[in-house]
Structure prediction request, 365 residues.
Amino acid sequence: MRALGPLVYWHEFNMPCAVSYAAANAILRDRRFGRTPLDAPNHPDHLAPFYAVEAHSMLELEPPRHTRLRGLVLRAFTSRRIAELEPEIEALAHRLIDALRDDETDLIAGFAEPLPVTIIARLLGVPEEMVPELRRWSQAMVGMYQAGRTRADEDRAVTATSEFVTFLREYIAQRRSKPRDDLITHLIVAEDDGATLSTDEMISTCILLLNAGHEATVHSLGNAVKTLLEQGHYGTPVSEALVEECLRFDPPLHLFTRWAYDDIDVMGRVIPKGTQVACLLGAANRCPRHWDAPDHFNPGRVGKSHLAFGAGLHFCLGAPLARLELQVALSVLAARLPRLQLAAAPRYADIYHFHGLEALMTHPR
Prediction:
């Protein structure tokens, strides 16, 4: 596709697609592109519970609602709160490794999946025994973003949404009467010029933090371990540069879309108003015009911005937490399991446009 130019029409998805770093970066940063279509889509009645939550999600909103919501959430989701999680992430990583089998084991199921969802649960203040249920809800709901979803996928997502909303509505009510030092309590008290979050906005925010933070970080961590093992860099000291190179080399999300709010020139091509356009993040992160030897994994690569977390207005809110989890988890793995080896060829799951492993079979010790 890249040989055809920075923008290519992708017939399978029926939309233009940005495959170069410059084109994808320009689209993601241009405020004339947004997440919300100009014409409100008509969703079938059976999907109403899912889209009722989406209606309050920062991921799907534009200013001024997006600006207000993101500002309020950032008052609760502070860098200090994230940094304070480091000892918990480290202790949990050790605990999960202790529980791994001594023989062949799936590092996705045993390590990469439980770590981020447990941390998000703790951050929200949700009981840890809820983690299996949170994982089930999250996995069902993100099925709505996958290409080629079926009616069965939609029904699972709607059921999970309804159960998740009921749980959170009751839990938020408890926190209003019995506040604690957790993110839900901080979301309740967050205020900006007299504005606060409604209960529906808090529910959507909690679901977004869990679904986006859990699903993407599972893939980021699994992809990073696979890359380090295959490229011969497992055991290399885990620096910030190595974490960023893992994210660039094999990001957890390969496609994100925007809607054109005007006729917009991108790299010499005009995107007509009302057109949905795709940004291929995986291709942009390997763009030869932006990086030297883009298909070569280089843990000492001089820092340049990548698009694994997006860019612009909708840059991933959870990026600092994801980076911290990768830094700590990869360091603990290398220290505890220095002889970790692949036991079978890694298998990518058929979950496009997410990009992650179905399993990562390893010999841990």
Q: What stands out?
A: The longest helix spans residues 199-231. The longest strand covers residues 255-260. The domain at 2-363 is CATH 1.10.630.10 (Cytochrome p450). The chain has one domain: 2-363.
